[in-house]
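Entry 12.
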Amino acid sequence: MVQNATSHDHFTYTYALKACCLLKAVEKGHKIHAHCLKSGYTSDIFILNSLIHLYYESNDILSARRVFDMINVPNVVSWTSILSGLVKCGCEEEAVMVFGSMDVRPTTVTLVSVLSACSRLRALKYGKSVHGYYLRNFSYDNNIVDNAVLNLYGACGCCVSLRNVFDRMPNRDVVSWTTMVGGYVMGGCYEEAIEIFGMMVQGGEVDPNEATLVNVLSACSSLGVLSLGRWVHSFIDKRGDLLVDSHVGNSLVNMYAKCGDVGMALKVFNELKCKDLVSWSIIIRGMAMNGYAKQVMQLFSLMLCHGIAPDGVLFVGLLSACSHVGLVDKGLMYFKAMKDVYRISPEMEHYACMVDIYGRTGLFDKVETFIKGIPMVPDGVIWGALANACKLHGDEKVLERISRSLLKTTGAGAGTYALISNILIGEKGGILLEAESGDFLGKHGGLVPYSWSAPRSMLSHRTLDLTMSSAEEEYYGIDDEEEFESDEGE
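Predicted 3D structure (tokens):
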């Protein structure tokens, strides 16, 4: 067919590229792209749009962007494809910039993509502007867009706006309810998340799915209220069509462990038919959290017998268990095995665990030597662990050395400075408040919150009216006072 020039046209290439995309046949797609170039189809927008889709589906966003740049006059499909591709490949900031550069009217699919980017960036102001554009320019309700708006406000911690938008949705599906529960969890409104789940169950509008249950179990874990977690577990058992396995099973294990019911955590874990690395990590960290160091090590050995290789997250659980009971040699052994046997590069959390292990046992000479050997600038977790150890053992000399080191570094956050200052005040009756503690607070007193300002100039783009009227804000209860802190400081 390819050899006969009259037997194919741009439709042939378009469908062939779509087939490659569905089959994940990237190499074949490259060959078809080459045939397109040889055949002179270098400016056909249908083929170019198909190529953009092919490349971003294979996570080759650079090739997708090069194809997009070849289009003289991109249509809405071109813009939406490249925007969706950027979001899929983790280039959210560039996606928002592309959206601001559009010179055609976006579709609801376009809006869903840019709202997703805003959610990941916690760019509330810009996301709210996109919401306003949607309200003003689309006369019909679209559940997918509404769910994306819910996700935005949930991700940004705007629980009031989240609820107001949810209450005004004419058609709510299971995604809407799940996003609502998850949004409350992300915003720290755990009791409200459980309340919404209760409304969902009692109202019968839709049935909860696995994602809903994972979110509500996360709320129960965060609250630490065992009775609520048991209620959710009983609901799962009564449903019959929900298997306590995979994500739901792991969430149940996590909930019971965080609520202190280690027996039930082990029971649910043992009943899991398929125990993956996440399952083992959860039970090991849960047992470590509750002080069962011996059982943690037994579980680790059992996991290795099942042929599952550990990751960095699991080693945090192991090191934490050693820290709780002061097993310095065991902790050091696991730390070395992580690096030398499993080739896992230690992260700050691993170093903090080792600092805690040394510090809790009062080995301050070793811990200071260990900190000096850390190949990255120690952050607040490291200094906080050491400061707590100093407070535990009443070692004022080390504490004062920490305070002097902190004044010379930028590696710690404001919370760590506050912690050190509070310890100094507590140890010396407030005498150092002005001299030393004041230096800590003064050093970080001028810090401004993180501000994502890249797309700010786009708010006045001549092609899109990205503003929300005061009437719309009042109707949806979207108040600037509730905005996520990443948008402050402008």
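Annotation: Confidence is low (pLDDT under 50) at residues 429-463, 480-490. DSSP finds 27 helices and no strands in the chain.
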